[in-house]
Amino acid sequence: xxxxxxxxxxxxxxxxxxxxxxxxxxxxxxxxxxxxxxxxxxxxxxxxxxxxxxxxxxxxxxxxxxxxxxxxxxxxxxxxxxxxxxxxxxxxxxxxxxxxxxxxxxxxxxxxx
Amino acid sequence: xxxxxxxxxxxxxxxxxxxxxxxxxxxxxxxxxxxxxxxxxxxxxxxxxxxxxxxxxxxxxxxxxxxxxxxxxxxxxxxxxxxxxxxxxxxxxxxxxxxxxxxxxxxxxxxxxxxxxxxxxx
Lengths: 113, 122
Description:
The structure holds 2 protein chains of 2 kinds.
Chain A: E1 4-7, E2 10-13, E3 19-25, E4 31-38, E5 42-51, E6 54-57, E7 65-66, E8 76-78, E9 87-94, E10 103-104, E11 108-112
Chain B: E1 3-5, E2 10-14, E3 19-21, E4 24-26, E5 33-39, E6 46-52, E7 60-61, E8 64-69, E9 74-79, E10 88-100, E11 106-112, E12 116-121
Parallel strand pairs in B: 2-12
Antiparallel strand pairs in B: 1-4, 3-9, 5-6, 5-10, 7-8, 8-9, 10-11, 10-12
């Protein structure tokens, strides 16, 4: 089954404790992206990657890191989480072609205390 | 700045009736894509329908159809014969080109509206 898998789905952590949210897709997609979703602010792009070893900042990259060492994986790293990073996070992927359809993971609810 | 506006934060409809969600966008581009995504209570975002700007014909997917008015920059979603499972947040999105990326092909970015929460009542 074609899917984007994120882990963990739920996480409560404390300020400053490094964490990683993993994302993996099995569709051989070139493009992958991370979004955060907050009430009243909609979806905002954090980082994206157009291919292996190619990553770029989105609209709200501060406080986040990503890596793309393999085509299927695109982890989101919070080196020193802060309460303003409490949010719902989505990983998404699509082909590099001009189709545009994004396939989303199920979301990761992160709470930073 | 390119924006996407969904003017209806919340809507409700009776089961089996028809509802239309509005979306307007602002762009100076001529070729682009427009999307409606659905986010049910389970949270996962799912593509509902896609429209290519160069196509005059409105896209249709079963009970979902769009009214694409390019000159007016309007892209509304019509849901016919509403079902309880249509209860969800609906997001309109516009895909713009942001220039040459360092990877394969051109870089394109989705600009999202803030969403319309639709409740289908029994």
